[in-house]
């Protein structure tokens, strides 16, 4: 099924107030918190969203549907989002717009080098910026015509989605300390914590990543990170 066929229906054409109406956006994102932000942005913009939390799930989606837009997180649990971007950019027929997303330094250049049409920097909070990034990546015939009122809105994801992410990390940190799992956990926590403005947790994740990069022991830093994650799970409030 080609989801871009939705544009053939006149009532599904984009409008000035709902500039992404008619689009189906596949979001390949392992963080429930980040994905909930994009879900709300799609809802406010008129787009339909599908979600995959890993490369394997994304491939299953793409075997059945061809979405109008694909947003790919570069740090996924089962591989590199950049490789998926490269494959999608080379495919025929090509998806109308492919965007990378990450909160890591230098990630934008990696995504664009792989063939992405644009990049969404995390944390994602501005509705206007989200819409503009997607519209600028689309072919001109899929964009709404005429001047568009710029109505910005700060998007606040569900705090319970943050708690779900913490539960996911807690499971990772209780498993045998595989180095790849630890690297992924530190990267994941850093991105989610920055999005939620949880600076203490982000600093702890960055400390693990720095020690891993230096090849230094990470036992103390990992224990601190695991303790902070558990603390957030035990709080009555989600964040």
From TrEMBL:
It holds the Pfam family Response_reg. The modification 4-aspartylphosphate is found at residue 73. Gene3D superfamilies: 3.40.50.2300. The keyword Transferase does not apply. SUPFAM superfamilies: CheY-like. Residues 24-137 form the Response regulatory domain. Keywords: Phosphoprotein. It comes from the Bacteria. One of its GO terms (biological process) is phosphorelay signal transduction system. This is Response regulator. It comes from Ruegeria marisrubri.
